[in-house]
Amino acid sequence: MTFSKLPGKGRGQQSLDLRNADVGEAYMLMQQAYLDGLSDGKTPAQIARKIEKLQPDGADRRLRHAWAVAKKEIFADYELPSATARPSKT
User: Is there a contact between 66 and 20 (Cβ–Cβ < 8 Å)?
Assistant: First the structure.
């Protein structure tokens, strides 16, 4: 996997949103995993776990941040359950 590097905005701060190449590429990979999961008949929880496992190992801090932004967006867009969410005790 290759990710292009774009300069950030502001005083040394890098702005990461869906217009950023790294975030956009990560989002597209996660979206493809979502669509593949749907076509395979997976549940939203199974798709969410699959997306959680997509993050490349050994990624640098900037790329990890880009993946976190993309994951937050895709989980919100497709209303996927967060793997870190704990069930409430009743």
Answer: yes
